[in-house]
Amino acid sequence: MMHTMKRCSWVLASILTLAGSLDSVLAAPLQESQKVGETPIFTVPITVEEPASVARTSERVTFGIPLPRHPPVLFVERLGILEADSRTIVPSQIRVQSRWHGSVSNNRKPIRWILVTFPATLLPGETTIYYLAATRGKFPRPRRENELEVTENKNSFEISTGPLRCEISRDRFDLFRQVWIDQNENGKLESPLLPDDSHASGIVIERKGGSLYTSSDDSAPSISLMEAGPERAVLSVSGALRSNTQNRITRDQLAELRYRAWYFFTRGSSSVRVLLTIHNPDRRTSKNIEKGGDELAHEFEDLTLRLALKPGDPRKILFSGEKPYTSSVETGHQLLLYQDSSGSHTFAPPTKASPFWATSFQGYQVRKLLEKLPEGVVVRNDKIPKERQGQILSRGKKSAGWAQVLLPKGRITVGVRDFTENFPKAIRVSGDIGLDLSLFPGEWSVPHRIPGGVQKTHDMVFHFDSEDALSTDAPESAIRFLRPLLPTLYSEDYLRSEALGLFSLEDPERFAFSEESTRAMIQYSPPRGQGNPKVQGSIYREREDKDLYGWLNYGDHYRGGSKNSRYWGNNEFDFSWVMLLSYLRGTRHDRRFFENGRIMALHLQDIDIYHTMRDLPSANGGVRKHDASGIIDHSRPPNLSHFWIAGLSLYAQLTGDPPAHKALSEIADWIAALESSPKRSPGLVQHCAEIRSRGWVVLACLDLYELTGEAPHLERAKRILHTMVIEPLGAKSYLLSGSDFRKAYQGDVVPWQMAYVTEALGRYLHIQRDRGERDLIAQKAFFQLLGFYEAHGFDQEKNIMCYVWDSITEKPSAFNANLSQTAANGLAYGYLLTGNQKHLDWATTYFEAGNQRSTYPAYYTTTLGTPAKNRCLQLRFGQVAMFAQQLAAGKFGHPEILEFEVSEFRGGSGLLRVTASHPVSVRIVYGPTGGPTGGPTNGPTEEKLQTARSAPGFSTQTEVWVRDLPPEEVQAVAILIDPAGQRVRSKVLKFTRPPR
């Protein structure tokens, strides 16, 4: 994946505009091998690597791609996918995820993120390149074979992918009402696999006393078609779990559980991906979260997603394990694959203090069980008797989480992602009932408890085919799901799009220690003599040593404590964002970074958000503070001083997964509810007295604005800054800490907390500049804060940051080198907004002070306890500063003109706006057309020469007033000048003064 900036192609033919009508279409229908006729406006390489040594034939991949603002793309109809020859069209489906400074529906705003689905074909272990291309008119669409069809009937939806047809009920959730496959491979789907109209399928919950709850008893689920296109369809079903008592539907007397399932169908595929969320919508306790009371946890023995099979059908099974295990199951028996622990070496028996680690043995077992107890055998003390437990057929430490069932008329393969890591988990195949994916299995040693406000999402696949034999090894359909293709752009293309914000490219020469420590998070290999013998290993080693697994805990990171008293991180310092960004900015795109970012984002999505609307408005939908006081079950209340959502937002854009977008919507509602009254008290946010709280809540609003493009998020950020930052700042250059943000408190200034506000202000001003708007009051406050860091925030003799500064004595009272980098981003925004080198020099000083080599990797404090967590702190801060250093050093190549326009004519003058790809000065020499060298006929003169300079950054806009325009067409030469004053580019621009 080594490459240079020359391989980037965002700016291919970048001075062209996206002219053309949406109504323009090529007349003749196209075949799938059709080549694109016109030269694309731009192309973006997409690298796809096969990771599992399995052939992929037309495997549909879905992923997010960021688009730049220049040249702007307004309509997805002008985008398409090309094969490696850059000409042959690949069938695709493209959906807008967000736009630049506008909502998704506003097609006057350029597209920022798209979600692309297309078929990729690769040999085992192969890497290939596809291209995203933009055209002036409508992108040619090939005619597809086996179209994906969605039919909406009175009682069901029917989805046909070509080799598969599924029927999904509208009147109950029974997973699949029916499935048809082409058993005889004659092109006809004549073989139904499932029993007709079975009420046994769906979510099945068992509780003490034998009470049974099934989703098929929910007669009024909400079902909607979220996406329907030629390559992919997404169906959503949601409802409540109710009990069937005395032949009528009644609500459970205890706290109810809700469910939501998303089905994903792709053209030409026999696999159906299912995301299933189980949710306790109640608050955590009988009183509000601040006052406590009895817990409102939903408790049960077993929760299973069941696919009922035809009774009496002989069944053969292949189970995953350290070695695949094959057997058959008879009527009256069941085979069970059960994962009781993570299989790590820190396995321990259950403790009274922690039911969430109530493991009984290390790893997994394959067992043969009796379906029913023999006559005369009774259950005592709620324990399963030995007669039912059956025979252990196989065992090991880690199971991959898949199974394959062979039936008389076809074959079903199922897989559960993160099966072992999210223990306990089980897959059962019964001779009488069918196939169970037990997400909370009854074999667990204690009842399961889902606390109020907690949800859990499982990612599963169901693959149906007509094969008449079990796989000889791991089924390729399961491997494709568990090790999916992961398309990526070049890191330069992610950066140049600006859609991910500002970050640095991997740069071992300029940032050697930072890059070395980043790599240590996933691959700890210290140079000889430099490792810490007391702390060994990467994040994988940490996870094994501390047993950071289980459905409630997987994806979180550790702060300290023991199994009975754990300190959880709850995405502290936005660990998910750090991991995902490390994946995208790296030259090699190491997949391990993405996988860690994925599971961390999912933990935040499910566990760290308080998913309820039945508690205090200040808590509902909020993000929990990290557990720093020995809490084992992630039960801290939401808190504005410790929450980060950029990682979840980036994950949502990269994958398009609906649960991530839904979770971010809850957070947006929480922040909105915290603003007391936008009309009477604009910008006054409850529970936001801490200085850092004001910074984090503004940064979250900006994340949500960039995710959605919806103006209310930006407007809220502006109100909060003006009320809770600019007003108390006044004429000072610092903010005072205290419980009341309007009052001085003991004269204490905490620079590292103030740094979060400075970064938020800088980012807000950067966004406003991109919008073509100015906030002079906020700008003045921002430079007041920068003045503090340049005058008081750093001790140059000690090369260390001020930790506490006394506003009365005007002297520092404490220092901390490890927090120095928190100020780097804010100072870097000062440079990007003005081009003033002193701001960049100070940003570099703070960044380097926080990244000094003392140990390997870098450490913060012992409370964080792990090298990966310590490195996360430093990676969260400083990316903008690193970007600014690379920009100033010319790492991103020469500037180019992306766009120009003349507007705001006043008399004989017009405002020329030149958008360039780099920080530049623009010198304009103009005159009538017709000069012998293509320039102005009158040649350059001092009177006709005007100069303006843009601030540093990508896609920067420079404005120059062109005076005394003649009435005819005018030609100008725009000369781009680099920071050293050298002429690096020139471009002839033509524009015409409009008639008076």
How does this structure look, described?
The protein is α+β, with helices and mostly antiparallel strands and about 1000 residues long. The protein is about 20% helix and about 30% strand. The chain contains 17 helices and 49 strands. The strands form twelve sheets. A nine-stranded antiparallel beta sheet has the order 15-16-19-20-33-29-28-23-24, covered by helices on one side. The protein has an eight-stranded antiparallel beta sheet with strand order 14-13-22-31-30-25-26-27. A five-stranded antiparallel beta sheet has the order 4-3-7-1-34. Strand 40 and strand 41 (about 800-805) form a beta hairpin. The longest helix is centred in the last third of the chain and has 20 residues, at about 750-770. It is globular and about 90 Å long. It starts with about 40 loop residues before the first strand and ends in a 5-residue tail after the last strand. Residues about 1-30, about 245-255, about 375-380, about 855-865 and about 930-945 have low confidence and may be disordered.
